[in-house]
Design a protein that fits this description.
six-stranded mixed sheet; 11 helices; alpha/beta; single chain
Length: 326
């Protein structure tokens, strides 16, 4: 009797398992059939937030479900990253993030509570937010070399703002490669750093075009160079820092992830819709207005490789500039 009960229980378990698997498969086949949340690790009004809202709206139209942007700012993207890492891997939680969470934090944060590789499923790189080296007009420099010469002639006189990981690593790399004595000043936000640059509280700032685009087009600051070695199509006449300091190449990228374990068919569906969105010239022009350059990867595998390469590259940058983990 006990043996028959054991077989009956086993059969019921097998049926339940098969039913659950079939339901999950059917749900994935119908994906998406509910709103999607896109978590952003920075505050509303930031460059990443603006990109997420523009891309999210069009992505929702393609997937025929609303994409809701959820800003979870704080701790230099750690709060949002931890939240996504623990989310259900069903395609209904996405993460629009940057090199801050996946390239810089692993080297700048001593006790990081998430793994940038193991805890996420890469979907696609969206593009990059160019950074530019800007100075206050009182600084007698109209080129990177002139800035270096002035800084060497006036050690400790200049200061630079560091409100985010890209600004920090780029500024420290500039200081290291040029062998200059420029004082770093930490900030909590890009807008405040830009305000202090215009007010001459700091004289140098590696600023993202998302927050600084409008000011960079005025005479309130002077733009000397961009941080990416390939230059910027948005600032085509501004030279790369790498022309003066060979090897200098720092890019702030944006990309979309899902929690680890998200089904491949769901990932591929999101990636396919995203490719169509990013190929739209209207979307590209809209993002260009906020200083963002569309530069997508084609497949999730290509993005995964890029993320791994950037993690190693930023590790070398941080170690080279001797930036201590906090």
């Amino acid at each position: 009797m006990q043996r028959r009960q054991w077989w009956a229980t086993l059969a019921l378990t097998a049926i339940a398992t098969a039913t659950t698997a079939a339901s999950a498969s059917a749900a994935q086949g119908n994906y998406p059939n509910a709103p999607i949340t896109m978590i952003v690790p920075f505050a509303a009004g930031s460059g990443t937030d603006a990109v997420a809202r523009a891309v999210g709206q069009k992505l929702g139209e393609r997937l025929q479900q609303p994409v809701i942007v959820d800003n979870r700012a704080g701790a230099n993207a750690q709060i949002a990253a931890g939240l996504v890492a623990k989310a259900k891997p069903d395609g209904y939680t996405l993460f629009m993030t940057t090199n801050t969470s996946h390239s810089a934090n692993p080297w700048l944060v001593k006790s990081l509570k998430y793994d940038p590789i193991k805890d996420f499923t890469p979907i696609a790189r969206v593009g990059e937010l160019p950074f530019a080296l800007a100075v206050h007009p009182s600084v007698p420099a109209d080129s990177v070399q002139a800035l270096i010469d002035y800084a060497k002639a006036n050690p400790g006189k200049l200061s630079y703002a560091t409100p985010n990981s890209t600004s920090l690593v780029a500024s420290e790399t500039l200081r290291f490669l040029s062998k200059t004595d420029i004082v770093g000043v930490p900030y909590k936000s890009s807008p405040q750093a830009l305000t202090d640059l215009m007010g001459n509280q700091v004289q140098v700032y590696v600023v993202d075009l998302g927050s600084g685009w409008s000011m960079l087009k005025t005479d309130r600051v002077r733009t000397l160079a961009v941080t990416a070695a390939k230059g910027s199509k948005i600032l085509p006449h501004v030279p790369p820092i790498g022309k003066t300091l060979p090897g200098f190449d720092i890019t702030s990228w944006n990309g979309i992830f899902a929690p680890a374990g998200t089904p491949p068919e769901v990932v591929n569906k999101i990636n396919g819709a995203l490719q169509a969105v990013l190929a739209d010239e209207a979307v590209q022009k809209q993002l260009e207005q906020i200083g963002f350059e569309v530069w997508p990867t084609k497949t999730p595998q290509e993005f995964a490789q890029y993320v791994s390469e950037q993690l190693a590259y930023w590790g070398r940058l941080v170690k080279q500039a001797d930036i201590p983990a906090q």
